[in-house]
Design goal:
- This protein is mostly helical.
- The chain has one domain.
- The protein is 55% helix and 0% strand.
- It contains 10 helices and no strands.
- The longest helix has 15 residues.
- The structure holds heme C.
- The site of heme C (HEC) has 20 residues, from helix 4, helix 5 and helix 7.
Length: 159
């Protein structure tokens, strides 16, 4: 009896693998990319692409396990949510938004990249120095939430 139940479950799991979320994205226009538009230096590009682009762009790099049902649907939902808040691949429409100005702050507060994601992706693990570099760059390039706040700059000068 238990064997039979396990067999049925295994079959269901196998069939479930044919159900995949819609991962299609619009054609990416390289000229509409945040890093291209802001002329980001290579070091910054690498950090931002490694730590933010899986959820905040159309250039998501899916690991193999992200295709396993039902994890795939959970992941896709999370990515869509991330893109709704901020999409670095469609920057013309996003640049002036409040969320754009919160990028530095989201890293400083440890909200982004999300901890559970960073633990599973080495390329999203930022050292303290890399965080400082990214925060300073985001604040200088995309602005900060409160214009005139210079707390970040003071921190930089002390280094
Ligand atoms: C694993 C997916 C994921 C990664 C990687 C990720 N984010 Fe997010 N981000 C989200 C989701 C989902 C939301 C919306 C829900 C929330 O605020 O938690 C979000 C929201 C945001 C917001 C809006 C804040 C708000 O409260 O509305 C900012 C700013 C942001 N992310 C910046 C970044 C930056 C900068 C990076 C890279 C250092 C990054 N994120 C990496 C998933 C991600």
């Amino acid at each position: 009896m238990i064997k039979r139940i396990l067999l049925v479950l295994a079959l269901l799991f196998a069939v479930a693998q044919f159900f995949q979320p819609d991962r299609s994205v619009p054609v990416i226009d390289p000229a509409d990319d945040m890093l291209a538009m802001s002329n980001a230096p290579p070091g910054i590009r690498k950090l931002v692409m490694g730590a933010c682009y899986d959820c905040h762009s159309y250039a998501t790099d899916y690991p193999a396990w992200a295709y396993i049902t039902p994890v795939n649907f959970v992941i896709e939902h999370h990515i869509e949510e991330g893109r709704e808040h901020l999409n670095f691949s469609a920057w013309t429409a996003q640049a002036g938004r409040e969320e754009a100005r919160e990028c530095g702050e989201s890293i400083a507060e440890g909200e982004m990249p999300p901890g559970n994601y960073a633990r599973m992706h080495g390329h999203a693990q930022l050292s303290a120095a890399e965080k400082q570099e990214l925060i300073a760059w985001f604040n200088a390039t995309l602005g900060t939430e409160e214009p005139g706040s210079d707390a970040m700059e003071e921190e930089e000068e002390r280094d």
